[in-house]
Amino acid sequence: MNAALGTARKPAPATASQTKSDPLAGLKPRLEVRSLNFFYGAKHVLHDISLTVPINRVTALIGPSGCGKSTLLRTLNRMHETVKSSRLDGQILLDGENVLDQDVTRLRRRVGMVFQRPNPFPKSIFDNVAYGLRVNGYKGSIAEAVEKSLHRAALWDEVKDVLQKSAYALSGGQQQRLCIARALAVEPEVMLLDEPCSALDPISTAKIEELLFGLKEMCTMVIVTHNMQQAARSSDLTAFMLEGHLVEFQTTEQLFTTPSDPRTEAYITGRFG
Amino acid sequence: MSSWAGQTHRKFRKGVSYLWLSTTALCALIVVGVLFFILGCLVWNGGSNVNLDFFTKLPTPVGETGGGMANAIVGSMKLLFLASLVGVPIGVIGGIYMAEFGGKLSAFIIQYTADLLNGVPSIVIGIFAYSLIVLRMKHFSTLAGGFALGIMMIPITLRSTEQFLRSVPVAMREGAMALGASRWKTIVSVVVPAAYRGILTAILLAMARVAGETAPLLFTALNNRFWSPGWNQPTASLPVIVYTYGISPYDDWQHQAWAAGLVLLGMVLLTNIIARTVLARGISAPR
Questions:
Q1: pTM of the model
Q2: Quick one: which of A178, B17, B264, B272 has the most CB atoms within 10 Å?
Q3: What is the CATH number of the domain that holds A136?
Q4: How far is residue A10 from each of residues A18, A94, A242, measured CA to CA in Å?
Q5: How many CA atoms within 13 Å lie on the side-chain side of B249?
């Protein structure tokens, strides 16, 4: 499974990386990205990315603004297709099946997403969480599923008496947890989080990080962040990206303590980015 | 002599400033004044004729005082109802297409056409409805009048629906799509509900706008001294009453025209106020 190791374009004096152990040793893959190239019009945004996301782990994508980490994340549930001029080469496998060949609405039920800013719908708290269930024709009890998801998102105690109130009555941090509950309701196998805490205060951020770490037993997480402390605190594996290339992919501990690429080291020690 | 301007120059500058300040204030005053002057005129000349009879009775023959405009009020409402049946669905659904599906070129073409249609003089719309419906059916009718007003409503509802839909944040659409909602489902269940207050306001304002149109009604709905049952006969309407009674040589008819104008303006103002109250409560989607 050497596809898992980030393919650095300009191989740095490769010394350490070969000798280091495979960060994915003993882990089952959930998502496999294989030689992915991505374009916005004529602009080549992602260069030959290969990356394996293991099951029931939190994988963080870090890198400076504009390095393509959000773009990579959005290809995983094909949200990139909302931009008409985009083009994608390569393969993305979810449990071994290419996501590009699947029905997109079914794919998005299996691969949920939480966005940078909380984006609740102009509906009640209950209807927000129930939305995905209704859209996907859920057969069981919607009320039970809503309650379960709100529990999982650690929001139930705060909202149980105001379920019929507008979601906009909640604070920013609560809204983001509501969005997480909304994504969890359809029981996705993978959850993509695009800088989910960048609009939140430190206390709400801490709550969400703790929450995500607890949820990984249920669902595989991929989180984009440009907050390195956040990646260090809440992820198991970390991929460092730069200018559309995947520079390094390691266990979080290894990447932050003994990075094998000098560019990674320069970034995590704060010399740029 | 010092190099600074003297007393006279300073006085001149202050004078110019004062002059401009008064000019702008005066113009602002005129804007407000015109509306109140019209309103005052209507109340002065027609206020005493607006009584219960005006809303419940038919017009009386010349020479007899009293009577009302019940048929014109109901006629106007029927015309507006028909106009909305034509204008609202086409405008709103077309607006959805423009905001959500239209490519750059098609959106430009539709937008440009809608703006042109909005600028077509109402009398031309009237003659269009006349040749299309009245000439074929060989008689004037409520139907033809409603159709003409409906055509006028289309561009207004279309453009405002489009603008309100475009103001719904992209993040909200993405949120729905990321949960597996199809494009249509996203629009119907998230985007339109987020913009519905704005759309509703636009519809009310479009109705208020065409409620006062006279020219297209003159040769479509024509007029009627009596009740107009069904949809297939000529009908009285408030704007046409203002026109025919206003130019008549009889004193009581002229007062009735003032009263009809007052009721019409009252209805339009009321719609405007309702629309603005709805809007003031906020478009439901923030940010």
A1: 0.80
A2: A178
A3: 3.40.50.300
A4: 15, 29, 12
A5: 0
Amino acid identity for residue A90 in this structure: G
Distance CA A119, CA B285 (A): 10
Tens digit of pLDDT at every position of chain A (273 positions): 444 444 444 444 444 444 456 777 778 899 999 999 999 999 999 999 999 999 999 999 999 988 999 999 999 999 999 888 899 999 999 999 999 999 999 999 999 999 999 999 999 999 999 999 999 999 999 999 999 999 999 999 999 999 999 999 999 999 999 999 999 999 999 999 999 998 888 888 888 888 888 898 889 999 999 888 888 988 999 999 999 999 999 999 999 999 999 999 999 888 876
CB spacing of A77 vs B178 below 8 angstroms:
yes
What CA–CA distance (Å, rounded) separates A167 from B193?
A: 14
> What are the residues whose beta carbons fall under 8 Å from the beta carbon of B87, sequence distance 6 or more?
B149, B150, B151, B152, B153, B154, B156, B157, B206, B210
Residue type at position A25: A
Query: What is the domain count for chain A?
Result: 1
Q: Determine contact, residues B72/B238, Cβ cutoff 8 Å.
A: yes
Q: Give the span between the Cα atoms of B128 and B223, in whole angstroms.
A: 18
Mutate to test the interface with A, among B179, B191, B199 (most CBs of A within 10 A): B179
In whole angstroms, how far apart are CA A259 and each of A67, A234, A251, A272?
A: 18, 18, 10, 15
Question: Is residue A4 assigned to a domain?
Answer: no
Give, for B216, the enclosing helix (H) or strand (E): helix B215-218
Contacts of A166 (CB under 8 A, 6+ apart): A122, A123, A124, A125
In a domain, A149, yes or no: yes
The answer to whether A79 contacts B178, with C-beta atoms less than 8 Å apart, is yes
Q: Is B279 on the interface with A (CB under 8 A)?
A: no
CB contact under 8 A, B177 and A179: no
**Cα distances (Å, whole numbers) of residue B218 to A91, A212, B127, B249:** 67, 69, 9, 20
Nearest to A117 among B171, B181, B193 (CB): B171
In angstroms, the separation between the Cα of residue A122 and the nearest Cα of chain B is: 6
Residues of chain A with C-beta less than 8 angstroms from the C-beta of B189:
131, 135
Please check whether residue A125 lies inside any domain of the structure.
yes
Say if CB B178 and CB B268 are below 8 A apart: no
A37 burial type by CB count under 10 A (0-12 exposed, 13-18 middle, 19+ buried): middle
Global ipTM: 0.84
Determine, yes or no, domain membership for A112. Answer: yes
Task: Show the domain range for A52.
Answer: 28-268
